[in-house]
Every structure is written in structure tokens, then in C-alpha cells.
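Translate sequence into C-alpha cells.
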Amino acid sequence: MHASGPDLDSRLARGVAWTVAAKWSVQVLSWGSMLVLARLLSPSDFGLVGMASVYLGLVSMVSEFGLSSAVLNLQTLSQWQIRQLNTFSLLLGVAAFLVSLAASVPLSRFFQTPHLAPVLALMSLSFIFAGLRTVPGGLLQRQMRFKELSLLEAAQALSQVLCSLSLAALGFGYWAIAVGNVVSSAVWAALTMLLAPQSFSKPDYASTRPALVFGSHMLVSRIAWYLHSNADFVIAGRLFGQGPLGAYTVAWNLASMPVEKITNIVTRVTPSAFAAVQKENAQVQRYFLGISEVLAFVTFPASFGLALVAPDLVPLALGPQWGAAVLPLQLLACAASIRSISTLYAQVLAAVGATRFVMTNSLFALIVMPSAFWIGSRWGLPGIACAWIVAHPIATTPILLYTLRRIDLPLRQYAAAIAPPFLGSVTMATAVVLLDGAGSFSLPAAVRLSLDVAAGGAVYFLFFLLLFRDRARRYARLLQSFKAG
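Result follows.
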């Protein structure tokens, strides 16, 4: 895979189009099934599976060991090495299953929930299925088979929904969710192996060492990310209790929703692009700049706009009892705009083989972010939310500068790519504030919210049409290519 230029552009466009279709189909399916399950099951059923999921989520991160990313980015791996990694991945999955099996009883005693042990034991089977699909999944992404990957995701979600709903209707309680998770994982593994079949070879450390070192760096990075990105919830819950934590959680989910829906779609396909052009520095620069610009163009106004309308949106959508979530939501929405473009740094460095720096920077963030949350907690939930605005740029500046240096991209050129969306968003925010000050503040909240959204969107697009018409045309052509894909 060394395609670049128009052919790779076309593949990426098709990949984004397929990913959009799959993501939204799965989202609609998940929302619908959740509403039905909520009526068939009790909160305690969801809580029991939730306890298991917290532990299993962390262990699954360890069991995957970054091997999928290694297969994607280390494109000189031979078939013999890939077969060895496939064996190693399966052994890791079996080991994770056995560890979870042994830990199920102690964990159930810790949570004082006897039924947790058998649920953990059953759901741990997913580790074996994950071990079977990790390497074939990495190969599918390496080959840019985004259509198949999207259909896999849809099939996995459909099997989970059908199994869980059927068992819940038959009265199986929390087992409906647990079995649904295992069945969907088995379906996912079976279809992945069918699309990218791989045999097994006896692992040899000397020949697989580069991939294992690569994977270990990615593993440490992901664990550090998992810990520091959840530290704010731990601190908020520990210091302020269940109610304020609930308000902060809702604020975080609302702030992250528009950004994550967009970035998850784009960053699903971008690792394959960076891996495909990893030896062509000019192409790495082009894709990094272009994707950063597009992400900024979409996520900056969405984040700024959410911060602006939060005082009206929260009481209208959630009710007046969620007033404590307004200010944290506004701060977290502003921080989300920064997070949206920083996701690409690690992807670029993984493609060019600089995973050690990714790991080091993740450990640096693990020190900076929890410290900032703890200091910010002196000012309550808004202080913790504000820590994202202050500390996240500090934590990501080293990796940004290193990324630019590795691909020989001047900082001013990167700043020039994201400056127009930032300036347009500031202009949009100014216009909305002036509109509210001119009298719309006295209108009903629903009317004011509609006016702010319409006016903000109009000002943002008018800003680009008047001052950056070439970029506006380029974005329009890009949207057409997605539709064509």
C-alpha cells in the first residue's frame, strides 16, 4: 500500500462516506434498542453490567496490546511475522480471559454484588474473540477496506441488539445485555476472520520484536490516556458526590457529542492514509494540514455554538434541575474544539514510527491533567471543567511541536490552516452575543435558541464566503466527493 494522490483521496472519501453511513445507522439502532431495553430491564440490571464493563474496558485495552496499530503502520512486516502476531494476539486474549476468570469472584466481593462473578466470567469470553480479530482487523484497515469495516460494525451492532432484545423479552434480565455483548463480539470476530483470513505460526520474539515494541508504546499511551481522561470524573465524584458528578457527566457528554461524532468518523480512516504515505513526507504534510483544516472548520463552530446556546439548551432539553451543568458545559465545549484537532498528532507519529514520543507525552499528560483537575476542584465543577481549557494545551503542545518537526512542517503553516475556522467562530460568537444584547434575550428561550443557531450559522458561512471563498469552494467539492463515495 503506497497509493497517494487522487487515488488515495478517492479512497478516503469513500471511506468517510461508508463510515458515516455505518456510524449513524449503528447510532440510531443503539438508541432505539436502549429505549426498549430500558423498559424491559431494571436500573440494577444495567448497573450490574456497568460494573463489569468498567473493569473489562481497561483489561481489553491491555489484551489488544496495540497489535492492530502495529500491523497497520509497520508495512514491512512479512506474512510470517503477521502469522506470529496473530498467534500472540490469540494468546493474549486467552490470558486476559483466564485473568478475568480468576478476578471475577474477588471483584464481586469488592462490589458486594454476588451476581457480578458469573457475568464477568461470561463477558470475559470477548477477550478470546478480540484476540482472533485484532490482526485481521488491522490488515483490513491497512488495505483500506472501509466498506467491509463499516459493514462489520453494522453487523456487530445488529447482532447485539437482536440478541439482547430477544433475551430481555424472554425475561433473562441482566443476562440479556451480557450475552448480547459476547454474541456480538463472536460475530465480529468470525466475520473479520472470514474477510481477512490469517493462519498461525509459533511466535519468535526476535522477529516480532519491532511490532511488540511498537505495540507496547501504544499500549502505555492508551492506558495513560484512559486514566487522565477519566481523572476529572473520579475527582468530581470523590469531592462533590453523586449529584454534582451527574451534572458534570451530562455536561461532558453534551460537550463531547458534536465533536466526537465528527472526529470519530474522520479519524476512523485517517490512520490508513498516514500509514499509506508514511515514506512520502510531502503527502503526510498535505493530509495532516488538510484533515486538520476540515476538522477545525466543522468542530470549531459546533463547539463555540454549543457554549453560546447552553443557557437555553440545557433547561429546554433536560429541565431546570440541570442548571448546575450549564457553566461546565460551556467550558467543556470550548475545550472540545481543541481536543478535536489534537487527535491527529499521535496518528501521524505512529505512522512515521515515533511511538516512543507518543508514549512519553501520554505519561506527561497523566501528570498534568489530574493535577490540573485537583487544583481546579477548588472552584467546584466549573474549575474542573476550566482545567481542560488550561491544562490540555499544555499537555498537547509538546506532541504538536514534535509532530511538526518530524514532518518538517512550519508552525506558521499549521496555524494558517486552522486560523480561518477559529476567526470565523469568534466572529460567529460575537454576532450571537450582539444579537442577544439587542433584544432577543427577552424572547422565549426556544425562540431565542432558534434565532441564535440560525444567526450563528449564517454569520459563519458568510464569513468564509466573503473572506475565504476559495476554501469555501474546496469544502463544497469535498462534501460532493463524500456524497459520491
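Note: The chain is about 85% helix and 0% strand.
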